[in-house]
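Repro case for the chain-ordering regression, as requested:
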Amino acid sequence: MFKRLVDIGTPVTFDFEGRPLTAQAGDSLASALLANGVLDFRQAPEDGTVRGPHCMIGNCFECLVEVEGLGTRQACRERVRDGLKVRRHSGRPVPGEQP
Amino acid sequence: MTEPVIVIGAGPGGLAAATTLARAGAPVRLLDEQPAAGGQLYRASERIGGDATSPLKGWLGPDYGAGLPLIRAAQAEANIDWRFDTAVWDIRCDDDGIALGLLSGESVFQDRAAHVVLATGAQERPAPFPGWTLPGVLGIGAAQTLFKDAGLAPEPDVVLAGSGPLLYLFAIQLLNAGITPQAILETAPKNIAPSILPALFRAALRHGSSLVKGLAWRRRIDGSSVPHLYGITDLKAAGDGRVETVSFRHGGREHTLKTSLLLVHDGVMPNTHLTVAARCDHQWNDQQQYWHPTVDAVGRTSQAGLWLVGDGAGILGAEAAVLQGRTAGRALAADLGLTPPDAGTDAADRKALDDLRVLRAFLDRQYPPSPVFGAIADDTIVCRCEAVTAGEIRGLARRGCMGPNQARAFTRAGMGPCMGRQCGNSVGRLMAEELGQPVDQVGHYSARPPIKPVTLAQLASLAGKER
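-- result from build under test --
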């Protein structure tokens, strides 16, 4: 996995799947989660397998997460903010449930 | 002349083109998806370069340091209007110029210009192998992005696999930071084949300094305690929900390593999504196995008013992107009736670009796309988004499927969120191989808007809105 060698900003606390995690100002959501040991970002809709960041430049869409209730956000392109609510992205929505 | 030239991409090519145009007196609107300038190679240059205490500058090395002066030169131009965090979700060329659909934060809007310079760069070549969809399998470029952008480094159990200059560069950067990877598994052979020697000699004459640098990297890696194996085959990743082991064949035996992180690299290829969407003419580079738009000597694509500089036109590297950006900037300025700045250096820039082409001809032959990733097993996923395997694509080709676009309709390969950015190259190669046809006859995916995800509400908000 990854470890933080150099600090990039002041501490930021955000919410992932209902638990508080600490990252640094300037982190993308992807680096914020990876720095906390989270690799499993989403469930692929077709085969149900778990996926995580792969390209880190906005190309592969493997790092999709749900941000403040909005699905299909690229974690490598979103910046972390204090209090941001982030959840794993599920490509298999339950019928009738709000996204 | 008041209408701005739009430059898309604030990496080395886009920065150079924007600076040259601005110095000629053209107003420039410079867009980038990222929150700061530098592109992928010079990512986070301002943060790292501006912090005298950051050890990253030293670890990343002198080539990375070339980015900050490019950014500062562009920032000195009042004619450049910077638009960060702005993604392009639509591009179309018509009789009135080039229309763009843009996404900035939560807002979508449209823009239009008679002249657009694309500097959209490269992506790592997707390298399908068993287990490559497991979390914890990332590109080496992806890990380098995390290193620059967030100061995150792989833990020492990391395994690096693949081939190409970036594999060596990142290994050196890790060694600089005091991290000794568990192993480097190179898919390329150790020795330079005799058939490549003429290309090596030509490169030595025209760009010897780069070859010396590459050799020094290799010597440093081989002088370190990191096991460095050449010519590995049969790479596989396995694990329950994340990578746990990496296996491969070397020296006639199968080996397995435990790891939490596998970084792979099979070279880079042009990022063609925007040029395909803009319906530019493209051609197939059979040696490097990638599509690239057809451009003239100064960067004009086949679409009137649409220019392209940097790796998006074919991989030549950052130094070449700057030269291409300046050359295109001067030619476009002349087209606009302006006096190009530094016209006297134009010939020198073109000569330097030619030297870099000779160097690249050697690198391309020494580091071709690896057969380790090219021989894709039937049960390996090629389209990650829709979990479509190589066997499904081959089966379609055998049953008479006409090409990637028809395969997409049958299997949904290329129809997921990445819209074929990851599988397009593999699907075309697989079909061509199965049909016994050249890839350029089989064709490539089309790209239709929106080429970045936008919501219906965002699209609806466009009604009656321009710019």
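Ordering looks correct now. The mean pLDDT of chain B is 95.
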